[in-house]
Amino acid sequence: MGWRPSRRLDVKAGNATDAWSADIPLDFQSRIISAECWDENLNIRLSNDGGATYSDAFEVDPDRPFVFPFSASDIQIQNTTGGSTARYQAAAGD
After folding, report:
1. What range defines the domain where residue 25 resides?
2. Could you say which DSSP state residue 57 is in?
3. CATH code of 33's domain
4. 20 partner at 20 to 30 Å CA-CA among 2, 29, 54, 90?
5. d(Cα 77, Cα 9) in Å, to the nearest integer?
């Protein structure tokens, strides 16, 4: 059968803070995550077990979308640079 395009999409957006965000639950278990930020770099962590454990952090550069082929149920977001604000958008697809 092979790969098929996502049929569902869940988009989360906001401002990253200096501390890790609370768990940001996705509407469904994703197969792929795309993250993009503006203004400043950010870190993103992914969980596939309802937020019980998280992956190591991935750094995302401003204006350079990053795609993670990862089955995730929750994400966490954090600023890379303390005292600054990174606007972000993360999209989950199945």
Report:
1. 9-93
2. P
3. 2.60.120.10
4. 29
5. 19
